[in-house]
Design a protein that fits this description.
There is one protein chain. This protein folds into two domains: 145 residues, Aspartate Aminotransferase, domain 1 (Alpha-Beta Complex); 238 residues, Type I PLP-dependent aspartate aminotransferase-like (Major domain) (Aspartate Aminotransferase, domain 2, 3-Layer(aba) Sandwich). The protein is 43% helix and 15% strand. It contains 15 helices and 15 strands. Strands 2-10-9-8-7-3-4 form a seven-stranded mixed sheet, with helices on both faces. It has a four-stranded antiparallel sheet with strand order 11-12-15-14. A two-stranded parallel ribbon has the order 1-13. Strand 3, helix 7 and strand 4 form a beta-alpha-beta unit. It is globular, with a radius of gyration of 21 Å.
Length: 395
């Protein structure tokens, strides 16, 4: 679909809808008038086919107990096979009310209080919270940053695993906020280290479908022909793919029989795990009929990124713009243009932007910001203009 036609049909105003991103600005940032580019959802309506299916289900008027249809399983299985070459069996699939919820469950089920859990920083801040909230020891290992290109320090990872007797590694693939789509050899190295030291891997692959041209998401479970599948659990969802986060539904994929039995035995003690009927329907229809929409979204994100990178490189080359391989979240390094303790004042008070600050993702990333590009190109343009104009006013 032509870009302008797509935007005309799908762009939407979200203010006044109890949007966390737009209507909670005053509570979160102290200013309700900021340009909101923080929370990882979109100013784009979900595919019309999903909306129509939800309307039909709602108009039926009954929201009673339901079971999971074969159509749902088939849609999930087909999507992962066709898009990611990941062959999933129906009996491997479990459900949660979101990726973060699942991570909390796994920490409870597969580790004990005071066990050590590893994450690679900078990384999605609920990873940090999940470990600390469950009274586990949070062990962080910074990614190596070479001019905005982030890679894994395998020697440091293995050192920290051994020194801290790590029990669990929470992986982000594709990586938020570094924008990396990990290569198979990168995944193989870290998965091999974890297998060697008996560290269970939880792989958050929620951004698997938002990958830019020239890159390919490799599910951790198929790395080296599935060599590491028995030592990991994958979490995926259609929520980032089709802008469905508020329907609180995700898939848990556990191929190892022993891990799956342990999960099943323990989860029933702490939570009901039936799927959300509307979330499941939206996921199914998205996987069945939403591919055209996704392709348009990826084009929009890539165009927004290219505009931002081009304008900032031209006008403020001192800002390092992390290359966007996957996700719709770009990480900017502002440390060469402004002292790190002045970033909030510059970005929020002067540029009038609500963004995610680097220190939210890791203590050593103050001076970075994360910007959401799954939005109206005019919002991206205004944000970039504000940054450039305010930069020119700096002493």
């Amino acid at each position: 679909m032509e870009k302008e036609k797509f935007l005309k049909e799908y762009l939407v105003e979200r203010k006044g809808t109890n949007s966390l991103k737009w209507d909670a600005l005053d509570k979160r940032f102290g200013n309700p008038n900021l340009i909101s580019m923080w929370v990882a959802d979109m100013e784009i309506k979900t595919p019309k086919e999903i909306v129509e299916a939800l309307k039909e289900r709602i108009e039926h008027g009954v929201f009673g107990y339901s079971y999971v249809s074969d159509d749902y399983y088939n849609a999930v299985i087909k999507w992962h096979k066709e898009k990611h070459n990941y062959e999933i069996k129906k009996e491997w699939i479990r459900f949660s009310t979101g990726v973060v919820t699942a991570i909390y469950w796994f920490i409870n089920i597969f580790t004990k209080v005071n066990d050590s859990v590893l994450i690679l920083t900078p990384v999605y801040y609920p990873f940090h919270n999940a470990v600390k909230d469950n009274n586990r020891k949070l062990i962080t290992c910074d990614l190596k940053n070479t001019d905005g290109y982030f890679t894994i320090d395998y020697n440091e990872v293995e050192k920290k695993i051994v020194e801290n007797d790590i029990k669990l590694f929470i992986q982000c693939s594709p990586h938020n906020p570094a924008g990396r789509v990990w290569k198979e050899e990168e995944l193989a190295k870290i998965l091999e280290i974890c297998k060697k030291h008996n560290v269970l891997v939880i792989s958050d692959e929620i951004h698997q479908d938002i990958v830019m041209k020239g890159y390919k998401h490799i599910p951790s479970a198929i790395v080296e022909n599935g060599k590491y599948a028995d030592n990991l659990i994958t979490i995926s969802a259609a929520s980032k793919t089709f802008n469905l986060a508020g329907l609180i539904h995700s898939n848990i994929i556990i191929s190892n029989d022993e891990l799956r039995k342990k999960y099943d035995d323990e989860i029933k003690k702490i939570n009901q795990t039936e799927g959300n009927i509307l979330g499941m329907l939206a996921t199914q229809i998205g996987y069945e009929k939403g591919e055209y929409w996704l392709e348009n979204i990826k084009e929009l994100i890539e165009d927004n990124f290219n505009y931002l990178k081009s304008e900032l490189n031209k006008n403020i080359p001192e800002i390092t713009v992390t290359n966007l391989e996957g996700t719709y979240l770009v990480f900017l390094d502002l440390r060469k243009i402004i002292p790190i303790d002045k970033v909030k004042e510059f970005i929020q008070d002067k540029c009038n932007l609500a963004i995610d600050f680097g220190e939210w993702f890791g203590k050593n990333f103050k001076g970075f910001i994360r910007i959401n590009l799954a939005t109206d190109p005019q919002i991206v343009k205004k944000a970039v203009e504000n940054i450039i104009n305010e930069y020119k006013k700096l002493d």
